[in-house]
């Protein structure tokens, strides 16, 4: 996997941890090892601009995903049935650590945990998952929880 990370937020973030998490999620999802993606870490002003431009909503948000290829669950970079997965440029995940820090405090966990959750969420969007409908929401958030649980076992072995 080729995972590029660029921190333009002015906030110290454990970039190596985020890249390892992304590789773990992509691997667990059966994404072709030749797939590429990038992760941008931006400040609240940059995130607010992206949020307004692409989602039509004011203010910063926690995560945005910009898929490159038309991917749907079960196809594209993840393969389709017996067909091998194609290498692909997956797209970009954009994280805002300032928003993540506030959400982490509200949720009672660390900013690292929140950034991991948000990165996983963004990657699932790159892979074609969505949560607009109740069934989609159940599937995506269930998968997100499974991926994060597996990641925590890798990150913090007992």
From TrEMBL:
<comment type="similarity">
    <text>Belongs to the endoribonuclease YbeY family.</text>
</comment>
<keyword id="KW-0690">Ribosome biogenesis</keyword>
<keyword id="KW-0255">Endonuclease</keyword>
<dbReference type="InterPro" id="IPR020549">
    <property type="entry name" value="YbeY_CS"/>
</dbReference>
<keyword id="KW-0479">Metal-binding</keyword>
<protein>
    <recommendedName>
        <fullName>Endoribonuclease YbeY</fullName>
        <ecNumber>3.1.-.-</ecNumber>
    </recommendedName>
</protein>
<dbReference type="Pfam" id="PF02130">
    <property type="entry name" value="YbeY"/>
</dbReference>
<dbReference type="GO" id="GO:0005737">
    <property type="term" value="C:cytoplasm"/>
</dbReference>
<comment type="function">
    <text>Single strand-specific metallo-endoribonuclease involved in late-stage 70S ribosome quality control and in maturation of the 3' terminus of the 16S rRNA.</text>
</comment>
<keyword id="KW-0963">Cytoplasm</keyword>
<dbReference type="GO" id="GO:0004222">
    <property type="term" value="F:metalloendopeptidase activity"/>
</dbReference>
<dbReference type="GO" id="GO:0006364">
    <property type="term" value="P:rRNA processing"/>
</dbReference>
<dbReference type="GO" id="GO:0008270">
    <property type="term" value="F:zinc ion binding"/>
</dbReference>
<dbReference type="InterPro" id="IPR023091">
    <property type="entry name" value="MetalPrtase_cat_dom_sf_prd"/>
</dbReference>
<feature type="binding site">
    <location>
        <position position="121"/>
    </location>
    <ligand>
        <name>Zn(2+)</name>
    </ligand>
</feature>
<keyword id="KW-0540">Nuclease</keyword>
<feature type="binding site">
    <location>
        <position position="125"/>
    </location>
    <ligand>
        <name>Zn(2+)</name>
    </ligand>
</feature>
<dbReference type="GO" id="GO:0004521">
    <property type="term" value="F:RNA endonuclease activity"/>
</dbReference>
<keyword id="KW-0698">rRNA processing</keyword>
<keyword id="KW-0862">Zinc</keyword>
<keyword id="KW-0378">Hydrolase</keyword>
<feature type="binding site">
    <location>
        <position position="131"/>
    </location>
    <ligand>
        <name>Zn(2+)</name>
    </ligand>
</feature>
<dbReference type="InterPro" id="IPR002036">
    <property type="entry name" value="YbeY"/>
</dbReference>
């Amino acid at each position: 996997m080729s995972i590029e990370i660029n921190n333009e937020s002015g906030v110290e973030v454990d970039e190596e941890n985020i890249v390892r998490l992304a590789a773990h999620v992509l691997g667990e999802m059966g994404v072709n090892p030749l797939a590429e993606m990038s992760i941008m870490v931006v400040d609240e002003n940059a995130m607010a601009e992206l949020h307004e431009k692409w989602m039509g909503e004011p203010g910063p948000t926690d995560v945005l995903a910009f898929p490159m290829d038309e991917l749907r669950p079960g196809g594209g970079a993840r393969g389709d049935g017996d067909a091998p997965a194609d290498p692909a440029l997956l797209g970009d995940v954009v994280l805002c650590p300032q928003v993540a820090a506030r959400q982490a405090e509200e949720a009672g966990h660390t900013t690292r945990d929140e950034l991991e959750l948000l990165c996983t969420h963004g990657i699932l969007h790159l892979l074609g998952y969505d949560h607009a409908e109740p069934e989609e929401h159940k599937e995506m958030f269930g998968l997100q929880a499974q991926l994060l649980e597996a990641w925590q076992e890798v990150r913090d072995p007992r």
